[in-house]
């Protein structure tokens, strides 16, 4: 029989399912970030107890593996001093002349639209270690960032 007419299974033609990618590097978290991870695990475990669809269960189990890994590898960052931009600080800055405020947080807590910027984001990396009053290059501009104020935010 020709190989063209051979049928192994329906499974071989399905899209492969992958684990959720774990960001490279340390898993630094704020106190708030660690609490959010724990909440997410609780939500997923509760959903898992209510669902019967095998595909939905597989997806929830995959998500749960991701969040359990993130909880196990979480490193609670020490409270910053506030004299320079570092993990956990809130930074008011002029970005290309526009006033913005960001808090530097962990990868899983990041939400730029809400002012929460991952410490791995290019903008964060450009600012880390800077002090209030400093002007920094970003993108193609040599003076794109001006650090206006740095505050320590608990949690």
Automatic annotation (TrEMBL):
Residues 83-150 form the Transcription elongation factor GreA/GreB C-terminal domain. It holds the Pfam family GreA_GreB. Keywords: Elongation factor, Protein biosynthesis. GO terms for molecular function: translation elongation factor activity. This is GreA/GreB family elongation factor. It comes from Croceibacterium selenioxidans. The lineage of its organism: Bacteria, Pseudomonadati, Pseudomonadota, Alphaproteobacteria, Sphingomonadales.
